[in-house]
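yo

u said u wanted the structure for the complex thing, so here. seqs first:
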Amino acid sequence: MEYLALYRKYRPKTFDGIYGQDHIVQTLKNQIATGKISHAYLFCGTRGTGKTSIAKIFARAVNCLDNEKGNPCLKCENCTLPDSANVDVIEMDAASNTGVDYARDLREKAQYAPTKGRYKVYIIDEVHMLSTSAFNALLKTLEEPPKHVVFILCTTEVHKLPATILSRCMRFDFKLLSQSLLIKLLKGVFDAEGKQYTEDALAGIATSAEGSARDCLSIADRCYSMCEKLDYESVMSVLGVSSRQAVLDLCKAILTGDVATVLHLVHQLNSQGKDLGLLNRDLSKNFTNVLVAKTCADADKLLLLPSDVMKQLKEIADVCTKERLILALNRLQKLDGELKYSLAPLSAFCSAVLTVAISGGEVDVVNLERRVAKLEQLPQNVNHETTIVVDKTSATSIWKAVKVEISRANAPLLLGLWQESQCTLQADTLWVTSTPSAHSLLSGEFAPTVRAIVKKLVAKDVVFQSTQPKEEPQDDHLLSLGKNVKIK
Ligand SMILES: [Zn+2]
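structre next:
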């Protein structure tokens, strides 16, 4: 007997057999039951989400002589007609018929009445592939459609359709199927086939199908004959377990800062021919999963991953911080764009993952929080009348006084810069050592303000200087502000 792929064998024959797209199915069933059929429908969504299946069921249902609440009865003369003999349902693939002649031909033939049913149904797959002139020809038909014609346009790339076509169709957006629905679908098929399986095997197949029912059954097809009772190991060996586990290991190595393992795994995966863009996306997905495992109490229910993957994710979640995960996700998102234009993608990739691996997860938000916390510790309501006694020989004393003066001046940015700095007094020079960015502001834009404050407090004979860490305060390093600016 001829072998029929699972996804064709189990293609649903009525609306009730469709998984997922409840909102679409309900609307279409109501329209058929009440006879209020639109003349053009647009089905958009990712591949394998049921667009063609629903279009076929719809085509049968509109011509069914005795539809049951919108579903085709599957018993009447029209329902039992084989696909090949049903001349009232015309399926065409726009990918192989892009030309204007085809669209014109379609327009002419659409004028003729259906032979058996009430409607002639045109199902046009991948409609975005039509040429502009073909779209124009089709548009004419859509503008003044014969009463007996229904168009169902299917597309995975709706943004490529002209607005004139969009505005003439009733649009339905198909959603990706959830993991639990895919598992339900697989269970139904395997039970009907009498195939034994483990729950983990189903979860493994459903995970790699990524929301597509057709992919799900295609993978099931490939795994089907592996062994008598389908288990997780056999599914993984069909899907290529080595790369899957390696990505998970890489994820762990990055998050735990294990640089040697990171480099080893990247090299291994790259030499196996794994595309770096795909690897990046796989990694991001793993990081997101770890974040879910770390933060959500019901992570098992949300992710629906095989138990051993879930166990590993939780182990990783225990040894890394949320900040590091967020940093990792941010960095990999940037990397995605970089990889498209990089002349040395491997270097770009290594640089990005190593940045995450060696950082402690300090993202800007954390730095900011730290600085705000420091600011909050400062005296909020300084009495403006109090005179500050400054010991001009002590850097600590001068520094403290400057801080108070800055908070009086209500200059939070300057105060922030000052917080990052250290103050020393050498001879007649007040040295402020700070980070490069703070340094450039303290020696540039804010120099006059600081100088004024120092002058007010310390009065004569003290020079204010800004420097960067580790720089010896020698004359060669003095920056433009300093040497000749004496506060008198
Ligand atoms: Zn029927």
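The chain is about 55% helix and 10% strand. The chain has four domains: 6-173, 179-239, 257-358, 386-477.
cya
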